[in-house]
Design a protein that fits this description.
With 335 residues, the chain is of the alpha/beta class. Strands 3-4-5-6-7-8-9 form a 7-stranded mixed β-sheet, with helices on both faces. A two-stranded antiparallel ribbon has the order 1-2. Helix 5 runs parallel beside helix 6. The longest helix is centred in the N-terminal third of the chain and has 21 residues. The chain starts with a helix and ends with a helix.
C-alpha cells in the first residue's frame, strides 16, 4: 500500500516537471511597451554605465537683471531708488525725503546765476608743491589726478555774476577736489574775489564745503585763514554785505575762518558743520554728545547760523536777502 502510493506520487511529479520544462510563459502587456530606465538593468556586455545627475534647483542662471550703472541712485536716508535724470533735474535733492546729495561747483553756479552772466576769475591758477610733500603718492601727482578727474584746477570756482537783479561776487567750493581742502590757491582766489567785490562795491557770497586746511601745504594753508578773514574785515568796513552758505560738510580751518564770518549765515538741511569731528570731541570731553550734534538744525537752535534753506529755494531766498541788504544803499542813491 505504501509502496504503490509512493509510486503514483513520483509519476505525478515527473509529469509536472515535464510540463514546466516544455511550457513557455509570456508576460502580458497592458498596452505600454516603454520600460522604466531606472528599473531596467544595463545590457549584457556593456563595459561602462553612466548615470546623468539631476540638476539642482537654483543651479541655473538667475533671472535677476543687472541694473546698469549711471541710471539709478539709492537715497542713503529713505533708501528709495531715484532715477538719475530726475535727481539731476531736482538739483540732487531726493524727491521722497529731501535728502541733499553732494553737488558740484559748476552745477551750483548754474542753479543760482542768471544765464550767461557769470565771469570766472583766476581760472588758470593752480597749486604748487612748495614743500615737496612725499607720502604714498606725491602732492604733485595728487593734484594732476584730481585735475584730470574733476576738470577743475583747484577746490574753488570764483567769479562775478548776476543773481536776480543783483551783481554779486560768488565763490563756490567743490568737495570732489581733495575734499574741498583750502590751500594757497583757494585762499588766494577767495581773497582776490573779496577785494574785487570791495572795489566794485558788490555783495560777496561764498558757498563752503570743505574738510579744512590742506595738509600737503602745511603752514601755507593755515595762513589762508588769516588772509581771507582780513579781506572780509576790510570788506565790512565799507559796509558791504557778505553772505556765507554752509553745505555738507563744512569743518575745521574753513569753518574757523571765512565760513563763520558772514553777516548772514545760511545752511542746507542736514549739513555737518563744526571744527573737530564728533569722535574727537567725545574722547576729549568724556561726555555723550546729542544725537543731532554738529548738524545745521542743532546749530540753528543754538544761534550759530541764521537760517536753514533748502537747495531748491536758495536762489529766491538769496535774492530776498540781497534786496534787504541793498535797500538802504538804493534809498540813499535815489534823488
Amino acid at each position: 500500500m505504501f509502496a504503490s502510493g509512493l509510486l503514483r506520487a513520483d509519476s505525478k511529479f515527473n509529469i509536472i516537471q515535464t510540463l514546466m520544462d516544455t511550457t513557455s510563459f509570456t508576460k502580458k502587456s497592458l498596452g505600454n511597451d516603454s520600460v522604466e530606465p531606472a528599473l531596467t538593468p544595463p545590457p549584457a556586455g556593456t563595459a561602462q554605465t553612466t548615470f546623468t545627475k539631476k540638476p539642482k534647483v537654483g543651479a541655473g542662471k538667475s533671472k535677476k537683471r543687472d541694473i546698469p550703472e549711471g541710471l539709478w541712485t539709492k537715497c542713503p536716508t529713505c533708501e528709495a531708488m531715484i532715477f538719475d535724470k530726475e535727481l539731476d533735474e531736482g538739483l540732487k535733492v531726493c524727491p521722497k525725503c529731501g535728502h541733499h546729495f553732494p553737488i558740484g561747483s559748476r552745477e551750483r553756479i548754474h542753479s543760482l546765476v542768471e544765464t550767461c552772466t557769470f565771469e570766472e576769475m583766476d581760472a588758470g591758477m593752480t597749486s604748487v608743491d612748495v614743500l615737496r610733500f612725499k607720502g604714498v603718492s606725491t602732492y604733485k601727482s595728487k593734484l594732476e589726478a584730481y585735475q584730470k578727474n574733476t576738470t577743475l584746477k583747484d577746490a574753488v570756482v570764483t567769479g562775478l555774476g548776476k543773481i536776480g537783479p543783483h551783481r554779486v561776487a560768488l565763490g563756490v567750493m567743490d568737495f570732489s577736489f581733495l575734499g574741498g581742502s583750502m590751500g594757497s590757491v583757494v585762499g588766494e582766489k577767495l581773497t582776490r574775489l573779496i577785494e574785487r567785490a570791495t572795489e566794485k562795491e558788490m555783495p560777496v557770497i561764498i558757498i563752503s564745503t570743505s574738510g579744512g586746511a590742506r595738509m600737503y601745504e602745511g603752514m601755507f594753508s593755515l595762513m589762508q585763514m588769516a588772509k581771507t578773514s582780513a579781506a572780509l574785515a576790510y570788506h565790512a568796513q565799507h559796509r558791504l554785505p557778505y553772505i556765507s552758505v554752509l553745505t555738507h560738510p563744512t569743518t575745521a580751518g574753513v569753518m574757523a575762518s571765512y565760513a563763520s564770518l558772514g553777516d548772514l549765515i545760511l545752511a542746507e538741511p542736514g549739513a555737518m558743520i563744526g571744527f573737530a569731528g564728533p569722535r574727537v570731541i567725545k574722547d576729549t570731553t568724556q561726555a555723550e554728545l546729542p544725537p543731532d550734534f554738529q548738524t545745521a538744525e542743532f546749530l540753528l537752535n543754538h544761534g550759530l547760523i541764521d537760517s536753514i534753506v533748502p537747495r531748491k529755494e536758495m536762489k529766491e531766498r538769496l535774492i530776498g536777502y540781497l534786496d534787504f541788504f541793498t535797500a538802504g544803499k538804493k534809498a540813499a542813491a535815489a534823488p
